[in-house]
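Q: Fold this one first, please.
A: Sequence and structure below.
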Amino acid sequence: MPKKKNIKKKVVKKNNGIAKIATLTTKSLSNAFSNYKKNKELEKIRVIKLQKLEEKNQILKDRKDLKNWEERLNKESNKIKLNEEELKLKEKEFKFKEEKQKIEADRLIKKDEHLIQIANELRNKEKELKVREEEQNRKDIDLRVREEEQKQKELREQRRKNKELKILKEEEKKQKELEYLKIKEWEEKFDREQKIKEQEEIRREQRLKLKELEKIKSFEEIEKESNNPNLGLEKFNIDKTSEN
């Protein structure tokens, strides 16, 4: 009977091992899929950051070009003013150069118009840069929001995993307790049955011994009767009296 008990324990341990392997495999697949989604999201964020850095560098370059254009514009404007003053002072002295001055004035006017056009373009470019800066700020805000959402998502995922792990451990604990109770009940039942069988065996042996004793006693009485006929007759009379 103890052999059956060992076989039962081996079967329970084997089933527990299979259940644990299945649980670990499921958890590994779930973790791998979760890490894959997480890495994809992080890669998207990294690409956005790189784009942001490139746009910032371009904005700095445009600002530098704008500043150079402004310096050139100021120099050209100062130069135009100086030339206009010189022309006014020498107007009387260089009448014979009036045509040349007129040509020069036309050239300066055209150049001034060109500079005005450049200034307008610079203003438009500055507006465009401002719009781009505002757009970049919005992108920065969106990026921060996405990063925060990713953090919150990771926290929720971690809390969910912790909760599932806790539930799994509790279920495993309950399963172990249940199996322990079943084994204990089986052992107690086995012990009771064994005791009952032992008691029945003892009673059977006692009945056999009693029968043997009765047979021996019966044989002895028969032998005595055969050796003493009067004793048999007395016994017969006693039995008849008892019956009456």
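Q: Good. Now the second chain.
A: Here it is, same layout.
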Amino acid sequence: MTRILLVDPNKAESDQLNASLTQRENWHVTRVGSIIEAIREAGENSFDAAILDYDLPDGSGLDILDFLRIGSPGIRIVVLGDQKSEEVAFHALSHGAGDYIVKDKHLDVELPRRMGVLLENTSPEYALVETLMPHAYDTASSIGAPPQEKESAVNACLRELVNGSIIAAGVFDHHGRPIAARLMPDIDADGLGFALATIHGQIGAVWTYGNIKPIGYTMIVDVDGGLLGITAIPGTFLVAMLFETPISRHRALEKLEAGAARITQAMQA
């Protein structure tokens, strides 16, 4: 079965495209209408292909290209736009999309045909979507604690960590799915996880495209009201910590590394 994720906020258009796509034998379409819905769906399931509308209520279809490529290796992606745009088309194709199609009256016929071409051709010359596996460069073995025990231990660790200058913290898997989090009410865990997974994928691109093998990373980002620390720990888990000012970047980095070490111990417990 070929699993296709269709991200289109227009129900009438989505209905028409779904009917057209499912005429193909063994093509199954899952429909969502926003970035956040797509993140949640792709976080739980893998897909063979995705069709992304450029204009979405909470952003652009281009915003989730890297996220989809991380979660579904080898995925074929088509971006749909309302008008011809060399800039949008270039951005889509250079970030892993296999095709960019301008929506017109022939879309319900043209889309299945061009998607079929992408799905049928698997050689490097034709498969335009590059596989970006964030855990490929992680030589550490996955941490084997059962999920419920892992979540409980990490939650306990975060409760101890979040105090003083550390005002929020979260742990996510490499898809960006929350494992444990102690966040402020205005921070969306799914959105933060998506952002971390996207950054993680871009770090992996250093190896994919630059032939330089990353073995780890730690970064401090200036944000409104403080600093955001981001790192990865063995087993390809992603850690974020939000620091309230005043705190120096050096001190925030020390706290991030120490906190990540404690989280690693908690996950191994």
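Q: Anything worth noting on the second one?
A: Residues 147-268 form a domain with the Beta-Lactamase fold (CATH 3.30.450.30).
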